[in-house]
């Protein structure tokens, strides 16, 4: 089939919505669920894992290895899909993820588990970007909002249900099944993709940009380690953090320079010439910054100040994640029916900023209902932003760059989450320590050293003065963290103002944007 024939048949095939199309989308949802659920499930199983394997001092690396590998691999998977074809590359990422899952379930010590989690993370980077890029290939921009809204809903459900699923699996089947559960689901997704998905085959003339891959991997790894270790494992001004910062900056500067020379750059810099693409990657960065910062510190506030149980920690975030799910689906449907989207980054940034400011006003007397309303407002804002940012980023580039556009948007959101957790965490922890020193003196220092283990039951055992001081300190820390988030939301609003609305194409309509029509999905 020629390119012209492909263009002419896209509208008819999309309007028919063949059964194969729906099956592919079902497989993509499974793949996205695998990537999103994994950390949530494993986090719940970690106490049991440490109890059996030991190695408490390396506990954080079980998560960090996965996160690092995912972030570093994401842009590489996107570029490989653009060069060699989406289907084979995506299936390879699923296979790698499943190998990592099987090996992690068989790990005999903490060192093995960390290494196998890195393998799993390498595959996970391809799962997330592959799902978004394939949707970009199969679905015309105007219809994409509906499906990407569905993907955002899957992400919200994973964040809510992950801890509950992880706890149930660990209690009834053992922690190893936290990894083995991926295998049957992955095989189903792999089988559907192999049989049903039809995409044009590609073969790039240029080779892989190995130097670009190395420089980008080193730069991203150094940045994620700085944001992960800074203020926790090492002081922000320590030699190790300074060394990592220098390495990261040098690698990324070298990467940018090399991308202007490479025959087939990993991350073509010309995509950033599109104003909408650049603005949407910035808004995506801020969305990750806010969402993951909030999901980390809101449960801490609710457990420490409001006395909530940590057993069902995912449910503590239900107001925010539920609101995010609803608005992400609605935003997708409205975008599909109207072809317009600018209102969502504007409205989302405003709601996110208002909600974060309200969260910053919480104190020791704030009720759970009130904090739930504040969280819901933040969730409404995040729902408006989650997938619209990906949709507009994809619509701002040519089809040949769909993979790198999807991977770049995903990467910036991932980096935003790392920065959000690190910077909001630094403000939170410093404020808690200062307030405890003021209100409880030496006893305050002892309490803050144990703060990671201070759940509602532990707090009840503290002397009343120390307990009240700690609750006040957590409220003060929450105020600082979410006030920062409010300022970041203002930056997102400023970026949204400058977004240029290009009406999205519907199936069978003439091009109104700069992106060529996507390839066809052959019915079976």
Automatic annotation (TrEMBL):
Topology with respect to the bilayer: Multi-pass membrane protein
Xref: SUPFAM superfamilies: MFS general substrate transporter
GO molecular function, a single term: transmembrane transporter activity
Pfam families named among the record's database cross-references: MFS_1 (PF07690)
Domain (Major facilitator superfamily (MFS) profile) ranges: 24-504
Keywords for this protein: Cell membrane, Membrane, Transmembrane, Transmembrane helix, Transport
Assigned GO CC terms: plasma membrane
InterPro entries for the chain: EmrB-like, MFS, MFS_dom, MFS_trans_sf
Stretches that traverse the bilayer: 23-46, 58-77, 89-108, 114-135, 147-165, 177-197, 209-229, 241-258, 279-301, 313-331, 343-360, 372-392, 404-428, 480-499
Subcellular location, record wording: Cell membrane
Record-linked NCBIfam families: efflux_EmrB (TIGR00711)
Similarity remark: Belongs to the major facilitator superfamily. TCR/Tet family.
Name of this protein: MFS transporter
């Amino acid at each position: 089939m020629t390119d012209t024939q492909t263009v002419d048949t896209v509208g008819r095939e999309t309007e028919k919505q063949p059964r194969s199309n729906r099956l592919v989308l079902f497989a993509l949802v499974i793949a996205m669920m695998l990537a999103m659920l994994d950390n949530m499930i494993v986090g719940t199983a970690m106490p049991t894992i440490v109890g059996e394997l030991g190695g408490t001092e390396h506990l954080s690396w079980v998560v960090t290895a996965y996160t690092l590998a995912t972030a570093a691999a994401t842009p590489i998977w996107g570029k490989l899909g653009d060069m060699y074809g989406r289907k084979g590359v995506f299936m390879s990422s699923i296979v790698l993820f499943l190998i990592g899952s099987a090996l992690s379930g068989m790990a005999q010590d903490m060192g093995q588990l960390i290494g196998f989690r890195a393998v799993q993370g390498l595959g996970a980077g391809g799962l997330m970007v592959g799902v978004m890029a394939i949707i970009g290939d199969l679905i015309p921009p105007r219809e994409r909002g509906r499906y990407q809204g569905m993907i955002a809903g899957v992400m919200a459900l994973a964040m809510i249900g992950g801890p509950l699923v992880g706890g149930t699996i660990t209690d009834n089947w053992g922690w190893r099944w936290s990894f083995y559960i991926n295998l049957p689901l992955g095989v189903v997704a792999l089988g559907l993709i192999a049989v049903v998905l039809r995409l044009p085959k590609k073969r790039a003339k240029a080779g892989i940009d190995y130097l670009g891959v190395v420089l980008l991997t080193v730069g991203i790894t150094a940045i994620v380690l700085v944001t992960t270790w800074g203020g926790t494992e090492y002081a922000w001004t320590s030699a190790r953090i300074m060394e990592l910062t220098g390495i990261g900056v040098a690698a990324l500067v070298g990467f940018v320079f090399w991308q202007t020379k490479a025959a087939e750059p990993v991350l073509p810099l010309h995509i950033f010439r599109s104003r909408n693409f650049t603005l949407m990657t910035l808004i995506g960065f801020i969305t990750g910054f806010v969402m993951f910062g909030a999901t980390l510190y809101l449960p801490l506030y609710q457990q420490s100040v409001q006395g909530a149980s940590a057993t069902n920690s995912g449910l503590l975030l239900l107001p925010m994640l539920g609101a995010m799910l609803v608005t992400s689906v609605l935003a997708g449907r409205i975008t599909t029916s109207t072809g317009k989207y600018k209102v969502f980054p504007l409205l989302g940034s405003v709601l996110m900023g208002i909600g974060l400011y309200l969260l910053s006003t919480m104190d020791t007397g704030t009720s759970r209902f009130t904090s739930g309303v504040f969280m819901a407002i933040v969730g409404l804002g995040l729902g408006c932003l989650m997938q619209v940012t990906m949709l507009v980023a994809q619509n701002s580039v040519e089809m040949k760059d769909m993979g790198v556009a999807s991977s770049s948007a995903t990467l910036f959101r991932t980096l935003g989450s790392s920065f959000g957790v690190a910077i909001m965490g630094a403000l939170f922890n410093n404020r808690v320590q200062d307030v405890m020193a003021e209100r409880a003196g030496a006893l305050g220092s002892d309490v803050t050293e144990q703060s990671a283990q201070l759940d509602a039951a532990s707090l009840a055992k503290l002397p009343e003065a120390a307990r009240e001081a700690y609750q006040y300190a957590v409220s003060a820390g929450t105020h600082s963290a979410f006030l920062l988030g409010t300022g970041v939301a203002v930056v997102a609003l400023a970026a949204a103002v400058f977004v240029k609305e290009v009406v999205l194409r519907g199936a069978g309509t003439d091009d109104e944007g700069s992106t060529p029509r996507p390839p066809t999905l052959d019915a079976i």
